[in-house]
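Good morning C.,

I know you're traveling, so I'll keep this short. The sequence:
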Amino acid sequence: MRVPRTTWARLALIVPAFALIVVLLAWRAPQWNLVADAFQLVTWRWVVAAIGLNLLSVVARAAAWNQVIEQGMPPPRPRFRTVFSAFGVGLFANAVLPGRIGELARVAVLTRRRQRGRGAWATLVGTVFAHRVFDLFPMLLLIGYVLATAKIPHWALTSLMIFVAVGFGLFAFALAGARRHHRSVLEGAGRLRRLVTMARQGLGVMRAPVPAAVAALLQCLGWSCQLLAVWATMRAFDIHAPLPAAGLVLVLMNVAMLFPLWPGNVGLVQAAVALPLVSYGVAYAKGFAFGIGLQAIEMSVGVGVGLLFLAREGLSFAMLRRMPGADQAEVAPAAEEADPARLEEPARERARISG
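The tokens, ready to paste straight into the viewer:
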């Protein structure tokens, strides 16, 4: 997805999103003085523990993506530190920009470090898709754990079922795409067919059982660290609900983030976190404050790591906002292959643009 460049186009996106935030907060608005009081009782050593666990989660998930890339790309493959750098930049972009721009930002960081050729973008986009598909395994385990142990509101059951159905659909698509990897529809294909073809690229890990199992285990490790980070954040806000409650919060937080309507889905996430905690005896205002703190901790890790690697890569925030759409990204390598020298000078000019 491209971020619109004209003022009116941006307003057309921002105004409805802002109106939705206002309606949401008016509908489920907490007592803000009680929210402020909850922050005065925060135990900061638990906050530090939560940040550390989130960092471990980032490392594990980046390692899973590295495993996918090793199976989906021909040599020379990027080193893990380069993959981790790209993953960090992607986290930053997803945290501060709408529309999952970070997924393409990951690809952009890796392609600028290798000799570009036909299919480089397509293959890397496919690895990002496969990496996301592996989230299904820990998510199913977590949902099963939550269903068996947590107090789930009736309104949340439908959301969980839809989430699982979407996950299975993506996994089935990934398997089918991996088996049909020898087919090419790039020539003369329309935009939708090009996007489908791109998703089929880089799915080599789906045809390799052992690397696929390693990637799935690394994703499970990353999610386990996130679960413990949620539990530690609950302790930081003096919420002594059991681990299943932390699992329920993590599941519903991811459901709320499934469609990024605005950066961070701020407001929607807090309501999704606070409402189920009411059944555990946690006041809505306190749960809302916990939701703010939880998202702030996760975003601090994503933004902090992302800014570090953004500087390391010599990129700027303005360059992230100009990430190409997926359909453009697929076509670009072919043009560069035909005449790489012609694009060398504009690339140097863009590198001098500051954010």
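Safe travels,
E.
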